[in-house]
Fold this sequence. Notes:
Elements: H1 2-17, E1 25-28, E2 31-33, E3 41-42, H2 43-53, E4 59-60, H3 63-72, H4 83-93, E5 97-107, E6 113-122, E7 127-137, H5 138-144, H6 153-164, E8 184-190, E9 197-204, E10 215-220, E11 223-229, E12 235-241, E13 247-256, E14 262-272, E15 280-284, E16 286-288, E17 291-294, E18 298-303, E19 310-318, E20 324-331, E21 337-340, E22 353-363, E23 368-377, E24 384-391, E25 394-401, E26 407-416, E27 420-427, E28 432-437, E29 447-455, E30 460-465, H7 473-490
Parallel strand pairs: 1-4, 1-5, 2-5, 17-23
Antiparallel strand pairs: 2-3, 5-6, 6-7, 8-9, 9-12, 10-11, 10-13, 11-12, 13-14, 15-18, 16-17, 18-21, 19-20, 19-22, 22-23, 24-25, 25-28, 26-27, 26-29, 29-30
Amino acid sequence: MKFFRLIALALLLVAVFSPAAQARSLAIFPLLDLTKDANGVNFPLTGYLRRQAGKLGDKLISDKKIMAFMVRHRIRTLGRLDSQAIAEARKELGADLILLGTVCQLDRAPSAAVSMSLQLIRTSDGKTIWTTIRDLSQNDLQRLLALSEPKTLNDLLKVYCPMLLASFPREINTAGPARKGLSLSSIVLRPERPGQPVVCRVIISATSRIKPGSEASVQVGGRVYPATLNKEEYGVTASWPAQETAGTYQVTLVVKQPSGRRETAILGRYHVDSTPPSLVIHLVGKKLDGLVTFSRSLAIITTMPEPEPLDRWTIAVFDKDNEIIVDQEDAGQLPERINWNGYTSSGLPALDGVYLIKITAWDRAGLIASAEQKVSLRRTPPKISLKVEKKGRRLRLALADSVTTPVSFWWLRIYQDGGRVIKTASGDHFPADVVVDLPEHADGSRFELMLVARDVLGNRSRRQVKDLLALTEKAQAQQQHEIESQWLEDF
């Protein structure tokens, strides 16, 4: 019995401390969605896949770290990674494994269907160790799950994702096979703009045993450039002009030992970008007189037809005199949406008028893209003029708006002494006429008017007249006569 307990304890320790039981770090990169375009991205489905993969026991690297890594290394193409990016992901993200995926089909109607392919990469050697591709449609499950058929694409995904990950490997040697050849301790590769130098500094691990008298060089784009070995024969420096032709170039270190033996190691790849980024802005608002017009908040949507990492960006707003009233700068990617509240950078409300909005962006190579568009700001609410004519027991009200912004609605109420409503009216345009029949025996009564108007931009005005009859032409003429008479008497 005691022997059995010792055996059980030993097996328990093996289960707890076995390398296979230790959580592996997994980086799930954004899914390439071919149903959108050749380099489309599907963030919601990526998040759903992350939640399902998280149930397998691996330690997931946060999506924010992965996105920052992609921006930092100018990774524009989804669904694949080169060997240098894989090595950097292991170094910077601490990723043992990388999961890449492609969405091939994603239908919501008339019958929900999904098809995806996944690729699992081991970062220690860049080897693809698992792939799968599965497709599933709502029609497939109608025959299998008659009692609980999926009604929507979300329902279908709940069945599909476990099927997709069913063969996901549980036991993986994340260290990979032992490497041969040159072992590098550190690599610094700084590409600059086209025509300017690329600087390379490499420290070779002492385990590689580079002998004195060895010669080093780097191969880039079919050309060979000399490199310098330092006194200890473990440091290598080299520089060369960046290629003028846009493209991705691999850098390979070659060390030739005195015996004639050649050792090589891929240092990485760099991208020469000679094409400025493209930038488009869309202003969200109501179009009046040919311009997008707003009163309180303007939504500015920025898109890049060919997405790429940005170094910095600015937004500026110019008035009619070409003076800058708003100027803001920030680093990194442009936000998808920018809101301008119609105020200047100093916190003062901008005057009604036409403004030019200009957004400028710089990519990592210093190339510039800009887009601009005019917008109209109108904060002035409706200004309603009111003329009142009285004939007998009938009033005629003539309403007009001196502001050019169209109204969306207006309404009025007329109250008699004591709060009794004797007239209500409404409309959606000016000018307008309103006829009011006064009640019998209303002599000596006072009538109060409440008028509210709102334009299509949301600007609102309210007018209150305590004594409506005092606005009639006869009453106004009488008041004028009394004023003149009083002035003569005082004179």
